[in-house]
Design a protein that fits this description.
By secondary structure, this protein is α+β, with helices and mostly antiparallel strands. The protein has a domain of 41 residues. Helix 1 packs across helix 2.
Length: 83
């Protein structure tokens, strides 16, 4: 598993985001907070990359994480995951 921290703004905000790339996981029961409205949709990474380009994924943290994974793939470091 790999993780990367990102600072979301260099102005008046000190919020940080941590994203993870994990492999060989199994889906379990969700336990969201009462304020969360989550929808799980499994798609291949290549489809997620396409969705970013098409503007279908609009969350900045998700876009940044997916683009970082796509860059690793372009460098040949994620070939097995994309197969």
């Amino acid at each position: 598993m790999a993780s990367a921290g990102r600072v979301l703004s260099n102005s008046v905000n000190d919020e940080k985001a941590i994203v993870f790339l994990a492999c060989d996981l199994e889906q379990g029961a969700a336990a969201p907070d009462s304020t969360e409205d989550l929808a799980v949709r499994r798609v291949p990474l290549t489809e997620a990359f396409r969705m970013v380009e098409a503007g279908e994924i609009r969350d900045a943290i998700s876009i940044t994480a997916l683009q970082a994974v796509e860059l690793l793939a372009l460098k040949g470091r994620l070939t097995a995951l994309l197969a």
